[in-house]
Specification:
Layout: E1 7-13, H1 27-34, E2 38-47, H2 54-62, E3 65-77, E4 100-102, H3 110-116, E5 119-130, E6 135-136, E7 140-143, E8 152-161, E9 164-172, H4 181-190, E10 198-203, H5 208-214, E11 219-220, E12 237-241, E13 245-252, E14 263-269
Parallel strand pairs: 1-2, 9-10
Antiparallel strand pairs: 1-14, 2-5, 3-4, 3-5, 6-8, 7-8, 8-9, 10-12, 11-12, 13-14
Length: 270
């Protein structure tokens, strides 16, 4: 807690609150188990029509304030009727991500998915939740890559910690196949200088060494496999800090229903 000079922070790609078959999982319970002062949630889903979305539901249940930045519009498909107990791909050869299709990712798949399952429309977002004093900053726009159905952004905030302040940034980066190094160049130019206390957290869609190389002066606060959650072989979810920030505790949390495992850290600006 900021009162003891530390801040706990977690990043979690919640896959719109559903597993690979479209079945809802306990996102609120998973976030409660993280018990973090600040949460960065990727793939938060807000249905059209005004019903509470993922971030709003978590915030209301756990006493957080929240902010959200839309990244794309799309479809969230109802649970697959042939779902079994596994997260992985359905046995008919379909893909787990058929549970979610963003607007520009529907070309060539609209007929097959539309005939097979019903769906709801909504917004795919990046969210920041907090239960401590926090001042929101500007949203940094990284733009949209030609093959990427989502525009990419960075949410920023400042948190008083231990008599000073800690700059907090949360993001959800594009895939390497979409030429995400272009966004990493923009991110490098936008993040705080390495001599200022700062933390960057999110689903980076990239392995740790490459992320470190893209952000000189920053270091990884936690190392551990996060994806795919049921049998992880890679770390795509990262927390990076500048030299003036000490890492008191860091861990990869247990799988809870998403295809990503959350990452949680406790930090102390030095």
């Amino acid at each position: 807690m900021p009162g003891d000079g530390t801040l706990s922070l977690a990043t979690f790609n919640v896959h719109c609150g559903v597993d690979g078959w479209g079945r809802p999982f306990d996102v609120v319970g998973a976030c409660a188990a993280l018990d973090a002062d600040v949460l960065v949630l990727q793939e938060s889903w807000a249905p059209d029509g005004g019903a509470p979305g993922t971030a709003e539901t978590v915030a209301a249940a756990l006493g957080y304030r929240w902010a959200e930045e839309p990244m794309a519009h799309g479809r969230l498909y109802d649970p697959d009727p042939v779902a079994d107990h596994r997260w992985e791909h359905p046995p008919d050869g379909g893909h787990a991500h058929d549970t979610l299709r963003l607007a520009d990712d529907l070309r060539g798949r609209r007929q097959a998915l539309g005939q097979r399952r019903s769906y709801g429309t909504g917004t795919f977002s990046l969210a920041l939740l907090w239960r401590v004093p926090l001042t929101l900053g500007d949203t940094l726009a990284l733009g949209r890559l030609p093959r990427d159905p989502a525009r990419r952004v960075v949410l920023t905030a400042t948190v008083p910690v231990g008599g000073g302040t800690l700059e907090v940034l949360g993001t959800h980066m594009s895939h390497l196949l979409y030429r995400s190094p272009l966004h990493y160049l923009r991110l490098r130019a936008a993040v705080p200088r390495a001599d200022r206390p700062a933390v960057l957290a999110g689903d980076m869609n990239l392995w740790g060494p490459a992320v470190s190389a893209a952000l000189p002066g920053w270091r990884r606060a936690v190392r551990g496999r996060t994806w795919p959650a049921w049998r992880p072989h890679s770390q795509l979810d990262h927390v990076l800090v500048t030299p003036p920030v000490a890492v008191v505790d860091a861990r990869v949390a247990a799988s809870s229903g998403s295809d990503h495992r959350p990452v949680r850290v406790t930090l102390r600006p030095t």
